[in-house]
Specification:
Elements lengths: L2 H30 L8 H6 L2 E7 L6 E10 L9 E3 L13 E10 L2 E4 L23 E2 L2 H15 L10
Antiparallel strand pairs: 1-2, 1-4, 2-3, 4-5, 4-6
Length: about 160
C-alpha cells in the first residue's frame, strides 16, 4: 500500500468518527429537548394582559391570578379570580398548574388573545376556530422567552419581534 492509500483510509476513518460523533450529539439533544414550548410572539403582541395564573380545569373557565407580567392599562391584579370566556378553546393545557395566560378585554369580558390579523389573508379566508389560542406552562424557558417579548413591548414597539 502506498502513502496516498493509507492517507485516504485514515481520512475515511476520521470522517466516520466525526460523523458518528455528530449523530450521537444530535440524538442526545433531540432526546433532552423533546416537545419544547415555543411562545407565540405574535399572540403576545396582541394581548393586553399577560398573566401567570393557576388553572385547575378548563371547563370552569376560571383562573386565579398569581402575577401580572404585563398590563396595558387597568386590569386584573394578583389574587383576582377571572372568568375567561374562551378558556375551553385553549391549547397547551396539560393538567392543573401554573400557566401564562395572554388575555384581551372586550367590554367587561376577558378572552384568551388569539393571533393578530394577517395582512395577506382577510379574516373571512381563515377558519379562526382551527387556530385555537394558546396558554403556556410556567417554566424557566417560557419565562426567558416572555422577558424578551415584554422588553420589546415596554419600549413601545407594536411590531412582533423577529423570530430567531
Amino acid at each position: 500500500m502506498g502513502i496516498s492509500v493509507k492517507r485516504n483510509v485514515a481520512f475515511l476513518i476520521l470522517s466516520l468518527v466525526a460523523f458518528a460523533s455528530w449523530m450521537i450529539w444530535l440524538g442526545v439533544r433531540a432526546i433532552r429537548t423533546k416537545n419544547p414550548v415555543v411562545v407565540s410572539r405574535s399572540q403576545l403582541t396582541v394581548s393586553q394582559f399577560d398573566l401567570v395564573a393557576q388553572i385547575t380545569d378548563l371547563t370552569g373557565k376560571r383562573v386565579t391570578v398569581d402575577d401580572v407580567l404585563y398590563a396595558a392599562g387597568d386590569g386584573p391584579a394578583k389574587g383576582d379570580v377571572l372568568t375567561v370566556k374562551n378558556l375551553t378553546d385553549a391549547k397547551g393545557f396539560v393538567s392543573s398548574g401554573t400557566y401564562v395566560v395572554p388575555l384581551i378585554k372586550v367590554k367587561d369580558e376577558y378572552l384568551l388573545a388569539g393571533l393578530p390579523d394577517d395582512p395577506g389573508f382577510p379574516n373571512d379566508m381563515i377558519d379562526t376556530r382551527a387556530i385555537a389560542p394558546r396558554i403556556y406552562p410556567w417554566t424557566d424557558e417560557v419565562r426567558r422567552q416572555l422577558s424578551e417579548v415584554h422588553e420589546h413591548k415596554r419600549k413601545g414597539n407594536s411590531a412582533p419581534l423577529p423570530e430567531k
